[in-house]
């Protein structure tokens, strides 16, 4: 049996729904969006493997003025460099959008740290930057019991996932988040199935690994749909 609704009643209902949805979106966005004046992004050393088969780990915070990302400053919160016991307290770390330099504070006869991580493109708040794996670009020379020299087999500098990773489209599947994880995001993800550009993890739609665990793996695939389903609702 058809539902009969007078035009004023219909408009009223649509209006109220619209206002309610707007309010939800506004609340959700307040949780998603960061202040416009100063901003920071946390990055981590993602799968940085030395030619000796060890993993270098660390996270740093990049703080910048809005609209001036490349002139920000970076500070490591944690850092583990293989082949040395030296940590953040005595390492000198210089972070630039296209390279990270790590050296040892002071000069020692048989002890030293000289690490250069050069990137193929500047790191950004939304995408991973791959390590330049050319041994002449990204390399290390670390002393302790004799000097160990080498280069890197893999790695990238990856931004820590946005607070609402599954919201990257509006209700119609147009890219750009709207504060809700809903059908539109699902729709957009369908159009993004496949490898990320350059294989870089964390591209739009790549929010999880094959098993639905959060954290991109360089592919938009079944696991990302699985993760999205678990995140449906306001951000
Ligand atoms: Ca959305
Ligand atoms: Ca994925």
Write the layout of secondary structure elements.
Elements: H1 7-32, E1 38-50, E2 55-65, E3 73-80, E4 91-96, E5 99-104, E6 112-118, E7 129-130, E8 139-143, E9 148-159, E10 180-181, H2 183-190, E11 194-195, E12 219-220, H3 222-230, E13 233-234
Antiparallel strand pairs: 1-2, 1-9, 2-3, 4-5, 5-6, 6-8, 7-9, 8-9, 10-13, 11-12
The chain binds calcium ion (2 copies).
Structure explained in plain terms:
With 235 residues, the chain is an alpha+beta fold. The chain folds into two domains: 38-159, no CATH class; 162-234, no CATH class. Helix content is 18%, strand content 33%. It contains three helices and 13 strands. It has helices at residues 7-32, 183-190, 222-230, and strands at residues 38-50, 55-65, 73-80, 91-96, 99-104, 112-118, 129-130, 139-143, 148-159, 180-181, 194-195, 219-220, 233-234. Strands 1, 2, 3, 4, 5, 6, 7, 8 and 9 form a nine-stranded antiparallel beta sheet that branches. A two-stranded antiparallel ribbon has the order 10-13. Strands 11-12 form a two-stranded antiparallel sheet. β8 and β9 (148-159) form a beta hairpin. It is elongated. The protein starts with 6 loop residues before the first helix and ends with a strand. Bound molecules: calcium ion (2 copies). One calcium ion (CA) binds at residues 167, 169-170, 177-178, 180-182, 184-185.
The gross shape turns out to be elongated
| Multimeric status of the protein | single chain
Structural class: alpha+beta
What's the number of helices?
3
Give the mean pLDDT.
Answer: 82
Beta-strand residue percentage: 25-35%
| Ligands present | calcium ion
State the distance separating the first and last CA atoms: 37 Å
Counted up, domains total: 2
The topology string of helices and strands comes to: HEEEEEEEEEEHEEHE
Largest sheet: 9 strands, antiparallel
Low-confidence stretches: 1-36
Cα radius of gyration in angstroms = 23 Å
What's the helical proportion of residues?
A: 10-25%
